[in-house]
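I hope you will forgive my troubling you with a question about protein structure. I should value your view on which stretches of the chain appear to form regular backbone elements. Here, with my thanks, is the record as I have it:
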Amino acid sequence: MPAPTSPKKRALMPSSKLRKALRAAGHHLSAVVQVGKEGVTAAVLRELDQQLAVHELVKVRVGTESPEDRFEAADRLGAAVGAQVAQILGRTVLVYRKDPERPKFEPGPSPRPAPPDSPAKRGGRGGSPRAGARGEGRARRGRSY
């Protein structure tokens, strides 16, 4: 298969459920990093790195006066901070880097299962085994008896 001729057609990040979730979450974000007339500088990369450490998903706005094309700027931003570009929409770039301790979008290490005799396995402490008989279930379903 020949390589796409348009730069818009190149793959940013593998198309997957993760990319779809990132694009959906990024829709409501505001751009917190801006690339100005100097282009992608060390200060821009430093700020992007700090924002990714805090937020994991960041919108970057590439200004019209930037000497770099938006695709070039997106490539440099992703490569320099070890992140992936999830979307380029107009002059806005959505950048993602997984948080090693608390990932929000990708499943991290699964929590250890509770021991067999712990309260979590036995149904908790002090709870009634007939909670549904008290009427909570009926009220939630909207039925009246």
